[in-house]
Design a protein that fits this description.
Oligomer: single chain
Helix content: under 10%
Structural class: mainly beta
Distance between the termini: 40 Å
Number of helices: 0
Largest sheet: 7 strands, mixed
Length: about 120
């Protein structure tokens, strides 16, 4: 059974940094996409950053390009999201997700497995 467990959320002031971690249990697919998504109150879930676990290609939402970096460990058991220069509009619940698809997408509907989420709050 696939399980994704996020950690690393918290509260920071604008301009600060946080690193989110996602530990993957039970996913044995040879190639898959993993990513970070977020959902703010009253808003739809949106893709933040995704990564092809084999080829290493990464895709970012325009709103986080240059500020966020997605990465994984060599064993592909952990996914990270380094978030720098955080802004109040980055406040949301952040979710880790995994799925199999021909080309990694920022569309949440294409991912099969989800973590429970970790809250990020950025104050001005």
């Amino acid at each position: 059974q696939v399980q994704l467990v996020e950690s690393g959320g918290g509260s920071v002031q604008a301009g600060g940094s946080l690193t989110l971690s996602c530990t993957v249990f039970g996913y044995t697919a040879s190639s898959y996409c993993m990513g970070w998504f977020r959902q703010a109150p009253g808003k739809e879930r949106e893709g933040v950053a995704v990564r092809d676990t084999i080829g290493g290609s990464t895709y970012y939402a325009d709103s986080v390009k240059g500020r966020f970096t997605i990465s994984q460990n060599n064993a592909k058991t952990k996914l990270y999201l380094q978030m720098n220069t955080l802004q109040p509009e980055d406040t949301a619940m952040y979710y880790c997700a995994a799925g199999f698809m021909a080309r990694c997408s920022l569309a949440s509907s294409t991912y099969n497995y989800w973590g429970q989420g970790t809250q990020v709050t950025v104050s001005s």
